[in-house]
Design a protein that fits this description.
It is built from 7 helices and 9 strands; from the N terminus they run αβαβββαββαβαβαβα. The chain is of the alpha/beta class.
Length: about 260
């Protein structure tokens, strides 16, 4: 295997336990196996690769993949996906809300991401912005409005650092850069998706309020919030991709 293309064709199957011809043309990405399970229940589809690194499920030309947590895994899956050249990739991620107006369960449609991850520096110079596919975000926005759901827009700060909630200096920095939310994957997914010519978008669910001690995510709070909001999050992702499929819309809006 002496080229990137040969490597990823072998590795996508190895990491997911799926043959290349069994993937849908439209991809949902998640950090949680429970999202894969809920997708399978909604779509009445089998769960695959449970003994592999990346569990998945496929139905109606849509495949959901649990790629794990963090920017290195985000870069890995976006590199591996060039093996199947998907029509669209939509990340259903969770984030911490950085504004007082954010509430648990709010949805954020990011218009860009700040590259604090480090991983994306291996793909582009630091001054290259991390941007989603505008056409894909537009479809998600339309889907949300059709379902009479409100959402916030803004920038997401992506970090490789998971435990920072105690760091007052870092919190001051987050306020200074005017980020709306924080996560560990979005900027990496946007950057590596752009690098690999894959239209990539994201719809983020506010799962905690880490700027205040009482808002830091705990196991108990996470379980309650997941019960309340996860299924709706997945359903919106499925609905948005179905709109693309049923309307034969193209979101490859850039000429590479």
């Amino acid at each position: 295997m002496d080229t990137k293309e040969k490597i990823v064709k072998d590795w996508l199957s190895r990491y997911t336990g799926k043959s290349l011809d069994s993937f849908g043309d439209y991809i949902l990405l998640t950090n949680f196996q429970k999202y894969v399970i809920q997708f399978s229940e909604i779509m009445n589809s089998a769960i695959e690769g449970e003994s592999s690194m990346m569990g998945s499920s496929t139905a109606e030309n849509i495949t959901i993949i649990n790629f794990g947590i963090g920017s290195p895994n985000a870069a890995l899956i976006m590199d591996l996906l060039i093996a199947i050249n998907p029509e669209a990739v939509l990340f259903l991620g969770k984030c911490g809300g950085l504004k007082k107006r954010n509430e648990i369960g709010d949805l954020i449609l990011p218009i860009g991401a700040i590259r604090g991850d480090g991983t994306s520096d291996d793909y582009f110079a630091p001054e290259v912005p991390a941007m989603p596919s505008f056409a894909l975000q537009k479809v998600i926005s339309r889907t949300l409005r059709e379902n009479e759901l409100n959402y916030w827009t803004g920038t997401v700060y992506t970090t490789n650092r998971r435990v920072w909630e105690h760091d007052a200096e870092f919190k001051d920095y987050l306020q200074a850069i005017r980020a709306y939310a924080i996560d560990m994957e979005t900027a990496t997914l946007f950057t590596v998706g752009f690098f690999n010519q894959i239209p990539t978008g994201a719809l983020l669910l506010v799962s905690d309020q880490p700027m205040v001690p009482e808002g830091v995510k705990s196991k108990e709070k996470d379980e309650v919030n997941s019960t309340l909001f996860d299924k709706r999050h997945i359903e919106i992702g499925i609905s948005a991709l179905k709109q693309l499929i049923n309307n034969s819309e193209t979101i490859r809006h850039l000429k590479f």
